[in-house]
Design brief:
Keywords: Membrane, Transmembrane, Transmembrane helix. With 616 residues, this protein is an alpha/beta fold. 45% of the residues lie in helices and 9% in strands.
Length: 616
Amino acid sequence: MAPAPAGSGALAAPAGSGAGAGAGAGAHTLAFGPPTGAGATPPGPVPGAPYGPGPEGAPPAATAASPGAGPAPGTGPAPGHGAAPGPATATGWAGAGTLPPPPGAPPGFGPPPPPAQPQGPANPAQSAAVALLNLSGLGLGYVLLRNWIGAALCWLATAALLVAALPADVDGVPTFVVYGYLAFLIAVAIDGGRRGARASLRIGAGLRRLALPLALVLLAVPAGGSLAYGAARDEAKEQALLERLAAADTLVKSADGLAFDKAEPTYRKALDTYQDLGTKHSGSRAGKLVPDRLDAYYTSVSAPYDKKQYCAAVPPLKHLRGLAATVDKELLGSRPAKTDEPLAESLYQCGTAALGVQTANPTAGASLNELLSTFPKSTQATRVEPAVREAIKTRVTALGGAEPCDATAELRTLRSSLDEMPDPSLEPASKEASDAVQKGDFACGTDQFKDKEFSTAATTMTDYAKTYPNSPQAAHARSIAIAAEIAEEEPAAGGSLPPADVPGGARMVMVVSNDGPGEVELLYTGPMTGKVTLKACGTCTKYQTPLLVNSPKIKACSGPSSKYPKATLLLPAGDYHFLQKRAATGTSTAGDTKSSRTKIEPGYSYTNCLYVTSLF
């Protein structure tokens, strides 16, 4: 091969390069192709470069070049030359456009290599074990991977859940906390499974085989915790329900002894709690105690009946009987029906005790009416009519006693009660009560007269005569009223009751004349009692009373007889008391009265002149 022309890429060998002899004295020539000639030395191996095939396929021998030797700076093929590489010479690689790779650093120099991350093949069982260990909420999957940050996050999340959940109460953990924690567990389980799929765990093979079973076992931790928390929460609910039950019991006890109208709101509140526990929480411990509490409730509310306070027992017994309309029937059972007999008995006892009692509340009519309408077929209803008749009989007997007016007032009240009771079975008793009241009014009037209560007796007997005009005693009542009116002015006139019958025998005439202004009513009582009214005398005036001693006496009725209005009385012999009551006129006032006393003897006739005197 002819030598290359100057400047074609020949490199001069530096002095002392140790290169072997070649063509041309003291110089080496780069040529394309393998080296020729004896003593040609192939290039030594380059660190990191693969071996190329030597002649005959043998690896080339190492060069004698010093370490780090290479082409001089600035040498090499010009850019753009694309000659194929040739064999290396003593000073570099043969061929245009190529550079040798950089030499490796000497031992002990340069940055240390990064630690190798062991990556094995994917292990599904290991991935599942790590995921399940994290799913337990204890972060043990991260502990196995030595990922302490992830483990700490799991511990913090579980601790936060425990703080929020404990101690267990009725309301439990807020829903968003539960769902948030579940989402967190799922996230760390997925992350742990991803990390553990190819991780090389620094544990023995035996422990590695136990990881998955252990993870499955540890899943019982959140499951068991959830069950334990559920049990604790259920117990908290039970305790809360028991506390509600105890509060209702306290309400019932606090109402004991109070009047029912004041205690009813408290009873209602306790009953609402019993009903809620017995229906909505019937399976709870508190709910199972409700039947016993209802028995105690009925006993407490009906306590007045047990104490024989029958009138006071009626409202609470009606309340208990009416609960069937407002409280769950299955919860109440037969309890409301058991109040029928006590309520009927209470109405009977309260009603019959109120017969004739004017101040009774409720009245006898109200209680007995309710009994007859609510329990018409009860034994108590059949006892009402005999009880009413017995009450009437007792009061009639009392009319002959010391206080007939009190007995009469009771009879009148009893009759009013019967007027409120339209039951046909009581019509005969109502008639007896009316007759007894009439008898009592007369007995009361006569007793008042005897007790010198003349004004009251006069009113009582006047009312009797007006109320019972057809009574056989009406005339006698009028006589007593007249005598009582006279006795108010002249007490001696009330020494004894006027006779009930008109006496027989001779009668004496008494002519009474009115010699005064205004109409005058003349009342008289004695062996015979009555009154007459004389019309006014139109020309008559008052007589002035003389103040001088030995003045002439007043000569009343001295004018013509026809001048004076007159009345004739036929009186049996005896002592009489008279009372004149003159009506008001221009010269006299209403209520001008004057009493007098006269003795009527047999065989005489009498005149009586009525006049008015005045100082002016």
